[in-house]
Sequence to fold (369 residues):
Amino acid sequence: EQIEKGGFEHFMLKEIYEQPRSIRDTLRGRLLPEQGLINMRGIDEYKEKFLNANRIIIVGCGTSWHAGLVGEYMIEDLVRIPVEVEYASEFRYRNPLINEKDVVIAISQSGETADTLAAVKLAKSMGATIFGICNVVGSSIARETHAGAYTHAGPEIGVASTKAFTAQITVLALMALKLGYMKGTLSESRYMRLLIELNSIPEKVEETLKCDPITRYLAEIYKDSNNALYLGRGYNFPVALEGALKLKEISYIHAEGYPAAEMKHGPIALIDENMPVIVIAPKSDQYDKIFSNVQEVKARKGKILAIVNHDDEDIASIADHIIEVPETENIFSPIINTIPLQLLSYHIALLRGCNVDQPRNLAKSVTVE
Ligand code: G6P
Fold:
């Protein structure tokens, strides 16, 4: 096992550090920026179904569901087809309205999650086209779908998903770019710009990993918290959910992810000097909005830890702590911003003496209901 961990103390840390490579592997052979091409056979094969779809429904559980939410923002933004994201367990039991004009994207690291598999079978029986995004080759969900694209993240051993999540977002980005270009909803110049930027993401993830020492330092400060609130807007709202889930899963600190603007409809009542608020605030057209959300937290004496870009001034000047990450296109920023949140959870869990790779009561793959 020590050999498998490749010198890291835990599988989770090893898998966090593998992300530049796993994202590169997921892009390899698919993203060809010099030729302005994205190769995805599964999409070519079902091109008509995708381009004429009335809507796209994304199903998944846990972290895979969070990736689906990022996919919703990407596909609606670039492809202009309505997207719904559903917990597989809810979808399968709510007598959903599905027909042959729908495309269902099933996301699953293991490809064995019982609820996701059942949702796939149900949608298939109702005539929908099913596209799978799985990590495990030949898994049950992969076999049940009409087409798909594997995430080439390699085996993920840590129960809390890390590299599978960023690989899933990478596949969704490729899909949204390819479909948007094919549908004509994405201009050639924006398409090319995004292709080039996506190609640089593995390098930017590598650079982001340099925040490890600061997350370790911050973990000392935040490790005894009883609660934490994660806030993000737009593409980074799902990142807030995923950050909170990571903390809950491995450190057993109660955490909630919220869309930053929704805070005033409830969670703001919880904010006092004991409440850490982790704000995901890269440069984007919603930056000013999130800045005012941060001011609202500050006015109530909440402790603010902000994930910001290197040249940030406004939020950085009022936050208690910051973690700086490289700037990228808003649509790819969930990949970058997730990295410090994974590391923060890891270090907090470690300091609290938790079993990072095998948290209590959790399973890597939930093959029963
Ligand atoms: C379990 C795992 C999570 C995972 C979820 C969905 O709860 O602990 O890490 O996100 O199942 O798994 P899947 O294999 O379908 O992505």
User: Anything to note?
Assistant: The mean pLDDT is 96.
